[in-house]
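Q: What residues go here?
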C-alpha cells in the first residue's frame, strides 16, 4: 500500500485515477484548486477512509509525506488553458517545480502528466517519442504546449541533477464520462450539442484529425508506468485509431439519433492538423495497448451526458 498524491485529482482524468488507486488498495490524497475540476467527480470516494481531498493550488508549495506523486494539475481544454494563460504557464512551471521539489524532499516517485501537445503541429506522423515537435513559442496555445515542454525539461533535470525518481507520460486526447459539459473539448462539445439538438460546431474544414483514448484505459497506462521500475520515459499513451472531426461528428450524430446540423466555424489558431500516437514503446515497456474502440467508449460517455442533461 502506497501513500499517493494526485494533483488535479478533482478533474476528469484525476478523478478516474483516484478511483483506480483506491481500488488497488492505496491511500490517496487529491489536491485541486477547483478551476476546472469539481468535488462531484469524487463523490464516490467522499466517505472512503483511505481518501482525502484538499483545496490547494500547486503554484504554492505543499509538504506531504507521500510515496508516489501523479502531477496532473493543469487545465487541459484549450478554452480553459487560454482563459488565463499566465496562470497556465505558472501551473506548468512553478507548480511542476514545487512537485519535483516535494518528490526530492520526501524521496517520492513522481509521474509528470505531459501531452501530445509537445509535438505541436507535427510534421512527423504518427508521432514517436523521439520526435522533438513543431511548436509555436508565441501563440495562443504556447502557455500550455511550451509550459508542458518546460515541465518535461524540469522533470529530466531533477532526475539528472538530484536523482529524483521521475517519469514522463505524453497523454494523447482522452475522453469519457465526467468531462465537464462546458469543458470545450471536442468530444463533450459534440455530444452535448447533439443531445440538445443544437448545431455541432466544426472548427475549420473538419479534416483535422485526432486519436481518442477512453479514460479508464489511459488511467491503466498511468498506473502501469508508475509501477514500472527504472523507466523514465517519455512514453506516449493514446489510442492510435485516428478520426477526422467530421467523422467524429457524424458518429456522434448517429449514436445520439440527433438531427443537429454540422456548422463550420472559424478554425482555431495553431490548431494541429493531425495527431496519432506511435505506441510501440508503451506496448514494449508497459505491456499496454488500448482495446476500447471509439464507438464502444462513446456509448457510456453519451449516456453520462444524457443523464446529466436530464437532471439539470
Ligand atoms: P481537467 O481540466 O479536467 O483537470 C485538471 C485538474 O487540475 C482540474 O481539477 C483543475 O481544477 C486542476 N488544476 C488546474 N490548475 C491547478 C493548480 N494550479 N493547482 C491545483 N489544481 C489545479 O483536465 P484532464 O483532462 O483531467 O487533464 C489532466 C492532466 O492530463 C492535465 O495535466 C493535462 O494536461 C493532461 N492531459 C490530458 C489530456 C486529455 O485529453 N484529457 C491530454 C493530454 C494531457
Ligand atoms: N473542435 C471542433 N469543434 C469543437 C471543439 C473542438 O471542431 O466544438 C476541434 C478543434 O479545433 C481541434 C479538435 O476538435 O481540431 C480537438 O479539439 P480539443 O479542444 O478537443 O483538443 P486539442 O486536441 O485541440 O487540444
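A:
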Amino acid at each position: 500500500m502506497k501513500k499517493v498524491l494526485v494533483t488535479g485529482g478533482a478533474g476528469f482524468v484525476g478523478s478516474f485515477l483516484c478511483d483506480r488507486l483506491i481500488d488497488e488498495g492505496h491511500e490517496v490524497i487529491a489536491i485541486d484548486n477547483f478551476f476546472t475540476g469539481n468535488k462531484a467527480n469524487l463523490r464516490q470516494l467522499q466517505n472512503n477512509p483511505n481518501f482525502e481531498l484538499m483545496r490547494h493550488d500547486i503554484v504554492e508549495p505543499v509538504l506531504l509525506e507521500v510515496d508516489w506523486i501523479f502531477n496532473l494539475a493543469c487545465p487541459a481544454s484549450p478554452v480553459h488553458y487560454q482563459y488565463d494563460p499566465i496562470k497556465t504557464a505558472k501551473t506548468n512551471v512553478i507548480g511542476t517545480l514545487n512537485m519535483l521539489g516535494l518528490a526530492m524532499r520526501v524521496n517520492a516517485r513522481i509521474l509528470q502528466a505531459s501531452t501530445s501537445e509537445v509535438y505541436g503541429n507535427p510534421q512527423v506522423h504518427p508521432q514517436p517519442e523521439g520526435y522533438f515537435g513543431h511548436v509555436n513559442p508565441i501563440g495562443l496555445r504556447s502557455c500550455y504546449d511550451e509550459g508542458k515542454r518546460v515541465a518535461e525539461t524540469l522533470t529530466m533535470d531533477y532526475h539528472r541533477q538530484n536523482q529524483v525518481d521521475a517519469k514522463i507520460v505524453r497523454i494523447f486526447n482522452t475522453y469519457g464520462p465526467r468531462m465537464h459539459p462546458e469543458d470545450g473539448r471536442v468530444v463533450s462539445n459534440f455530444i452535448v450539442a447533439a443531445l440538445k439538438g443544437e448545431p455541432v460546431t466544426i472548427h475549420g474544414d473538419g479534416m483535422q484529425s485526432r486519436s481518442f483514448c477512453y479514460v479508464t484505459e489511459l488511467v491503466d497506462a498511468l498506473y502501469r508506468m508508475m509501477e514500472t521500475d527504472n523507466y523514465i520515459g517519455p512514453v506516449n499513451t493514446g489510442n492510435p485509431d485516428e478520426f477526422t472531426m467530421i467523422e467524429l461528428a457524424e458518429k456522434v450524430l448517429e449514436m445520439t439519433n440527433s438531427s443537429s446540423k454540422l456548422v463550420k466555424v472559424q478554425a482555431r489558431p495553431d490548431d494541429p492538423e493531425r495527431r496519432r500516437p506511435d505506441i510501440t514503446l508503451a506496448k514494449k515497456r508497459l505491456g499496454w495497448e488500448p482495446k476500447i474502440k471509439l464507438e464502444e467508449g462513446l456509448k457510456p460517455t453519451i449516456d453520462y451526458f444524457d443523464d446529466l442533461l436530464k437532471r439539470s
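A: Context that may help when evaluating the design: The two ends are 39 Å apart (CA to CA). The chain has a mean pLDDT of 97.
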